[in-house]
Design goal:
This protein is an alpha/beta fold and 164 residues long. It is built from five helices and ten strands. It folds into two domains: 1-37, no CATH class; 46-157, Vaccinia Virus protein VP39 (Rossmann fold, 3-Layer(aba) Sandwich), CATH 3.40.50.150. The protein has helices at residues 9-13, 16-28, 64-72, 113-122, 160-163, and strands spanning 2-3, 35-36, 49-55, 75-83, 85-86, 93-95, 109-112, 125-127, 131-135, 146-155.
Length: 164
């Protein structure tokens, strides 16, 4: 699991997300490890993982290409993205930051399903069927929840013929 850096605004805004890994350890006997660091430069010492889940973090990052490139490099097989997304097959994004709302300095971009599909294809992954559901989110004014799209990608493996 990747957590926010010490001293980051995300860390100071909500402590709930920081406790989740430890709750999973205690209640579910989880063996997950937590890494607090830079999503743009995940160290190779973390190793590689069969399944990587990226949940509600990309909207808060300034450079989705760099972050997903780093994350994908640690993924052997399945990469899951759960995020608020623009439903559009074109690779587009929407800028969220506003000069007249400096207090909302924690969200930068919303990306389209098409952008994620194109980028992950470039990074060597094939899209699987997608789902959208409403989930509770700590977004102000969204008591009913927000729509979160889940995209699943499987790494393309070289065919046996290509290896010969």
């Amino acid at each position: 699991m990747l957590g926010p850096r010490a001293g980051s605004k995300t860390r100071s805004r909500s402590r709930t997300g920081l406790r989740a890994p430890w709750l999973a350890h205690r209640e579910l006997k989880s063996a997950n490890r937590v890494y607090y660091g830079n999503a743009y430069e995940l160290p190779s010492e973390l190793g590689r993982f069969d399944v990587v889940i990226v949940g509600q973090i990309l909207v808060h990052l300034r450079d989705v290409v760099r972050a997903l490139s780093s994350i994908a490099a640690r993924c052997n097989d399945t990469l899951v993205i759960a995020e608020g997304m623009i439903e559009n097959p074109e690779p587009i994004s929407h800028w969220l930051a506003r000069a007249d709302r400096p207090e909302n300095d924690y969200s930068f971009w919303h990306y389209s399903t098409g952008l994620y599909r194109e980028l992950l294809s470039i990074l060597g992954f094939e899209p699987q069927p997608k789902e959208s559901r409403k989930y509770r989110c700590n977004l102000e004014g969204s008591a009913d929840g927000v729509s979160i799209t889940t995209l699943v990608f499987k790494r393309r493996h070289a065919s046996p013929e290509a290896a010969t």
